[in-house]
Specification:
Blueprint (H helix, E strand, L loop, with lengths): L3 E8 L5 H22 L10 H15 L4 E11 L2 E7 L14 H10 L5 H6 L3 E8 L2 E9 L4 E2 L20 H7 L6 E7 L9 H10 L4 E5 L9 E8 L2 E3 L3 E10 L6 E8 L2 E9 L4 E10 L15 E10 L14 E9 L3 E7 L4 H12 L3 E7 L10 H5 L4 H5 L3 E4 L9 H12 L4 E5 L20 E3 L6 E5 L1 E3 L1 H5 L9 H10 L3 E3 L3 E3 L4 E6 L2 E9 L2 E6 L16 H12 L6 E2 L3 E5 L11 E6 L13 E6 L2 E7 L1 E2 L6 E5 L6 E8 L11 E5 L14 H11 L3 E3 H12 L4 E10 L4 H20 L4
Parallel strand pairs: 3-4, 3-7, 7-8, 8-38, 10-16, 17-18, 17-19, 19-20, 20-28
Antiparallel strand pairs: 1-2, 2-39, 4-5, 5-6, 9-11, 11-14, 12-13, 12-15, 15-16, 21-25, 22-24, 23-26, 26-27, 27-28, 29-30, 30-31, 31-35, 32-33, 32-36, 34-35, 36-37
Helix pairs in contact: 1-2, 2-16, 6-14
Amino acid sequence: MTPTTETTLRFTGDYHVPMVWLVALGLAVAMWFLYQREMKFHSGAFAWVPAACRTLAVFILVLALSGPVMRRETTQRQLGRVVLAVDTSASMKLEDAGNEARLARAEKMLLSGTTPLLKKLTETQDVELVLLRGQQTQRVWWHRQKGKDTSGEMPTSLEVQADAPITNLDNALRDALGPVTPGTALVVFSDGQHNGPGSPEEFASTMKQSTTPIFTVGFGTEVPPPDLSVLNVLTAESVFTEENLQGRVLISDSLPAGTPAQVKISSAGKTLWEQSFTGEGKGERRFDFSFPVKELPPADANERDKTLRLLNVQVAVQGERASLEKTRANNSREVALHLLTKKRKVLILDGRPRWETRYIHNHFDRDERWESKLIFDDYAEKIDDCAVQKLFPLTREELLSYDLVLIGDLSPARFKEFQLDWLVEYVEKRGGGLILIDGIHGHLKEWLKGKPASLIPVSWTSATSTSFKSAAWSLTTDGERQQALRLSDSPSANASLWPSLPEMRWAAQVKAEPGSITLANLGNNPAAVFRPVGAGAVLYLASDDLWRWRFQVGDLYHQRLWMQLAAWVAAPPFQAEDKKLSIGTDRLRYTPGEQSEIRVRVRNASGELVSQAEPRAFLLLDGKEIATLQLEPDPTHFGIYRTLTPPLKAGAYEIAVAESSSATRSDLRLSLRVADAGNPELATLTMNRPLLEAMANASGGRFLREEQAATELPNLLQSIDRRQVTIQETNLWSSWWWFGAVIVLLTVEWLMRKRLKLV
């Protein structure tokens, strides 16, 4: 654009400017009157010129004491980049008071009228129009460099329906922005009903760090219409048949007070639990349920997987007022439940009852998927009498039945030689997971002697335990990529979260051995080191102070980290197994749109793991093959192969495996059910103003209601323009211009005096 120049005069002298001006003016006036006495005997049209020149010269010379500087400021403005992201999820088809859908109102604002908002913005900005389609984005149109770079004529309609199954205001917005450059702003047109993965607030915070403001334009009413919906069902993925299934149903209640209603759980038409209540119209409500698992109806005779059951959770208005709800599309939710035959097992061994191992044991003990055993050394004088020997697995087969072993500050001298051999075999051949937690007594250093040395991924650089005042965790590049170390849904926010957690008071000083991977540091010291060992995996932690993360937040980070580490390091679970093949998935419950991680383990005729296989997985939906997936070796676990399915739709799936590209499918099948979780878009019918405001405030932007956007948004976006400012200053008081003017004035005076015969 055409640059603009502004010229100003300022004074930088050492003397007070008004005083200098007064002195200059006073001397100039005095000079005028003195000159007039000399000129009183001369007349003519130019008789006043000498006096004027002398007076002005004196004024300019004295004024130089004020340090006059001429400042020229030239501004070259570059257009800002504005990304307009329009939410096209199913909740945007809802009609509010005006009987017009939210998406239709957004479309009208952007594309209709004599001066549509989109056209108005292109006059002052580079503009991109993007649609949010659940997890995906769709770029519709762009207009850059005053039309020199454009995708075509401005659209007159969005030509899309509000039917995306979810709203993602984190990952989808990242895709919409792409690489962020200075002078970028994001404008989000949405009702704020985020129900996908990620954290919009954390995303907004990262945008502030890159000076990219987010302006949120909210659609929808803030007054909830009469409605009843299932928000979520919190219960275990799996349960044993002899137990009670317990959980909680979360519902949204915006019914008129006193309206009769009911919440019910059923399976295959059989009611398992129900509770009547009356509407209160106060928002979220919770109903705890419990019923014996043995009351579940038996599986259908045609079902391959007899362990899978489907629960249907429903809420409904009862009686004559059943028709007053805004919509009934949000009144039910399907929940998949798996009946377990065995739990995963963890063995925890420690030299003493430390805070860390106590809390870890509590985490496993509360998790229904795990069975934990805790052994503390009692330091009995005779090894045969110590607690480790009394409680350690009695047979090799019993030890190999564990999925994870955790060893704390415990000396290998408390074990017998054959037990150490079992532990090595457990990791290297069975494929078990081992986690080592160092301690101030330094007993783990003793494991570097003998056969167990092959399990240790570090060596100690100090003979004594290392203490320091405090140190914060920091993830390495490898650690940032590791899902097990994610304490935040946002990858970028996770990296900054670790250093902000409570600091460690103690850590061993070690270095990573060749073949090991350092995942995190404490200061400059490796503190989380991982190494695959044979068919298994070993993780070493240099500090036992992680329990300090519980300060003021309880289990928020500590439990999440340990359960993720356990799932990652432990021998992977397999739900379907025979002599040669094992098939498993990362979770037991999925909702539409999610992907499942398939794990396969292959053994030869001798029962040994095969590391050079090329297995393929076949994904079948309702008996029809829909995908063939090539599995890749798992770098963490020897002999394990993994792959991800495409995003799954609701339905009954089976997974079959072939050992190689030329082999036929095995008869072994793993059943997988993707349960219909209802329509999360309709769980809440109002605009989520708090979320939209939080996103705007956290990024340095602003929240606007839809009626404000057309008039206020163009002015707000002017702030993101990129401006290149060039400043040039001339010191007039010491320049040739300034003193040249004095010389010219004095020269004119002298010539005029000569003409008037005064010299």
